[in-house]
Amino acid sequence: MREIVHIQAGQCGNQIGAKFWEVISNEHGIDATGAFQGECGDLQLERINVYYSEASGGKYVPRAVLVDLEPGTMDSVRGGPFGQLFRPDNFSFGQSGAGNNWAKGHYTEGAELVDSVLDIVRKEAEACDCLQGFQLTHSLGGGTGSGMGTLLISKIREEFPDRIMNTFSIVPSPKVSDTVVEPYNATLSVHQLIENTDETYCIDNEALYDICFRTLKLTTPTYSDLNHLVSAAMSGVTTCLRFPGQLNADLRKLAVNMVPFPRLHFFMTGFAPLTSRGAQQYRALTVPELTQQMFDAKNMMAACDPRHGRYLTVAAIFRGRMSMKEVDEQMMNTQTKNSSYFVEWIPNNVK
After folding, report:
1. What is the spatial distance between Cα 236 and Cα 238, in angstroms, rounded to a whole number?
2. DSSP 7-20
3. Cα-Cα-Cα-Cα dihedral of 70, 104, 16, 121, to 10°?
4. Assessment of whether the complete model's pTM goes beyond 0.90
5. What class does CATH assign to 2-268?
6. Per residue in 5-23, pLDDT tens?
7. What is the pLDDT at residue 187?
8. Residue 135 Cα to chain centre, angstroms
9. Class of 280-341 in CATH
10. Mind listing the pLDDT tens digit for each residue in 290-334?
11. Among positive and negative, which fits the CA dihedral 28, 5, 79, 231?
12. Would you list the domain boundaries of the chain?
């Protein structure tokens, strides 16, 4: 089966990664101990090997590698609801922390830890039948996620040059900023991401806060609300890898449809349906309604307005019982009605 090895680096990466595993474990019917409890076994287990390996006693273990330069976040992941799911050998952490310093993560502290992490990655890769690629969750504003995350990417690139490298990168934004050096860390990281990854999903906290305020009508959103949004989007964009579907069934096919030039591989994620708790019953979940929401600037997880530029390519992923014909027609409509927002030199660029 076409497996994916998941790596999470730094505090942000580990928090989001832990939430991602919670969400997809629920979708695949796997409980906190790794046992399968699902109702519709065939569907949930058909492509379970993509993200999980089966251990003795029929337990499912995530193909995840957890990395940080300080032990704190690891402990909270381990103590979290699905902490017992992960293989204990796959936790790799330092003691000193990177202090929000990209160079510490990339050249000093991170470089000391990177070999032991690569050993774990190698072990996971060797346990696969036919590895299709890696995915990394990290933030670009801190030290470990950005500095050590990009170091890991380039080292993995050296060792597995023909495998797809996919990242979920939380980019800093001016309005929501924790540390003063975020722009530096992000600039240094983006340079690495341009060269060494195949697909990067850009998500930023400002857009997530906006979604929480405007769309979900939360008055005081917490980081766990933001993580929930990110994990919902991650679960959505990986659906076609984890369940049988029509299109984009692996990372490479997604890249073929989405990346027109090798360096232009930064994706903006839109997610629908997003509605506040009270308004749910007043909205119909039809294909046109979902499509309209999905393309809405308010539902984008990156704080940039798509109306100010043009789309090069679009991949729309619908989940559940859908009429393929209806979806195709809707995509056609979207493209013909808004043709000025799509570049004319890539025909049929909505998949």
Report:
1. 5
2. EEEHHHHHHHHHHH
3. -90
4. yes
5. alpha beta
6. 999 999 999 999 999 999 9
7. 95
8. 7
9. alpha beta
10. 998 889 888 999 988 888 999 999 999 998 888 889 999 999 999
11. negative
12. 2-268, 280-341
